[in-house]
């Protein structure tokens, strides 16, 4: 018997476009995102601040909204046309997840949109129309030494990376890199729609939680300036991990924690992934150069801490524990635990194994 139920096509996602973070102290957040990171204020009032980076011309890439509990309010993907907003509504109604159509202006600066609680438990919006504002790409008179160019990606903590990968592949995302072990347990994956390493990254852990929001800069020295600026205002403790060079993505990176503990990554450009046969890179979870190319340890908080996410009624989502092995355990806590090279004195001259971090 033919199956007459034709699966509606997925929306044509262009890129990760904006995030809404709920913050408990708007003034403290403004001091971090505007005074230190230098993001441009498109609009602000007593309840929210709308921010954009220097290469962006849409109304905002980040909304900071005052609220009682620090959490992720929403992640938004831009789709290729107004028709794709309709496609999103059809696709998710057919999928049977909670779907809401909102009018233009439901979010300041954003046109008509569809909001969902996606199959992974995240609050997601698909939009096309948005207000255009001045693009400051070459307003070097306004750029600080730590100028941020644009929003680059979202990193999501999910209990099962393969399940989340399958869902994002159903939206047409492709995998650029992932981290596995010899039993094929998948610890993380990076997936893209725009021609860079990722728009969304999936980190295996208790979820749904937001691991981080990442912004791109043009140059590594801009990350260094942000570190120096934090030192100058005696807030160097906002630096959680890095600066360093990623193995995965090859980007130069810096992780910061904002006044509410939300994790923000600042990340230089990675590499082009736009050809249809772009090969996937798979890293061994025991390769200590996978997350930091020079093998610097990954601090335990980077593996364990993340922001809760809200549902469409602004209630915190319940967390599901990861059932599979956890990367922090498998690499015996922080990194620095690596393969020895065959014949290494550390390996007693024997075959490739991996040394324990406490061994010199
Ligand atoms: O730490 S990893 O090299 O795996 C990494 C690569 C790219 C990212 O955006 C990230 O957050 C983390
Ligand atoms: Fe990242």
From TrEMBL:
Its cofactor is Fe(2+). Residues 15-129, 150-269 form the VOC domain. It comes from Speluncibacter jeojiensis. GO terms for molecular function: 3,4-dihydroxyphenylacetate 2,3-dioxygenase activity; ferrous iron binding. Its EC number is 1.13.11.15. NCBIfam families: HpaD. Keywords: Aromatic hydrocarbons catabolism, Dioxygenase, Iron, Metal-binding, Oxidoreductase. InterPro entries: DHPA_dOase_Mn/Fe (IPR011981), Glyas_Bleomycin-R_OHBP_Dase (IPR029068), Glyas_Fos-R_dOase_dom (IPR004360), GlyoxalaseI/FosfomycinResist (IPR050383), HPCD_C_sf (IPR044904), VOC_core (IPR037523), Xdiol_ring_cleave_dOase_1/2 (IPR000486). This is 3,4-dihydroxyphenylacetate 2,3-dioxygenase. SUPFAM superfamilies: Glyoxalase/Bleomycin resistance protein/Dihydroxybiphenyl dioxygenase. PROSITE patterns: EXTRADIOL_DIOXYGENAS (PS00082), VOC (PS51819). Belongs to the extradiol ring-cleavage dioxygenase family.
């Amino acid at each position: 018997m033919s199956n007459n139920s034709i699966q509606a096509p997925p929306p044509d996602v262009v890129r990760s476009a904006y995030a809404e973070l709920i913050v408990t102290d708007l003034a403290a957040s403004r001091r971090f995102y505007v005074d230190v990171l230098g993001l441009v204020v498109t609009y602000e009032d007593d309840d929210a601040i709308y921010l954009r980076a220097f290469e962006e011309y849409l109304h905002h890439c980040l909304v900071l909204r005052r609220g009682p509990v620090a959490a992720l309010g929403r992640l938004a993907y831009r789709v290729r046309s107004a028709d794709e907003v309709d496609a999103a509504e059809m696709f998710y109604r057919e999928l049977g997840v909670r779907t809401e159509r909102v009018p233009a202006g439901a979010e300041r600066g954003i046109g008509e949109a569809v909001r969902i609680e996606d199959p992974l438990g995240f609050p997601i919006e698909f939009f096309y129309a948005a207000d255009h504002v001045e693009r400051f790409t070459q307003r070097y008179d306004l750029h600080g030494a730590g100028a941020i160019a644009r929003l680059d990606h979202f990193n999501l903590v999910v209990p099962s990376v393969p399940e989340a990968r399958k869902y994002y592949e159903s939206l047409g995302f492709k995998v650029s890199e992932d981290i596995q072990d010899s039993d094929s347990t998948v610890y993380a994956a990076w997936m893209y729609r725009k021609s860079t390493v990722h728009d969304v990254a999936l980190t295996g852990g208790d979820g749904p939680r937001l691991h981080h929001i990442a912004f791109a800069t043009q140059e590594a020295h801009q990350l260094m300036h942000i570190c120096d600026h934090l030192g100058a205002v005696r807030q160097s403790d906002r630096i959680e991990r890095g600066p360093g060079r990623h193995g995965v993505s090859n980007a130069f990176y810096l992780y910061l924690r904002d006044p509410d503990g939300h994790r923000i990554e600042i990340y230089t450009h990675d590499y082009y992934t736009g050809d249809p046969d772009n090969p996937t890179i798979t890293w061994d979870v025991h390769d200590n150069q996978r997350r930091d190319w020079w093998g610097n340890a990954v601090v335990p908080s980077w593996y364990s801490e993340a922001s809760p996410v809200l549902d469409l009624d602004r209630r915190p989502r319940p967390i599901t524990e990861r059932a599979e092995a956890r990367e922090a355990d498998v690499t015996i806590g922080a990194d620095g635990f690596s393969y020895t090279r065959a014949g290494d004195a550390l390996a007693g001259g024997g075959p490739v194994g991996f040394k324990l971090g406490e061994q010199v």
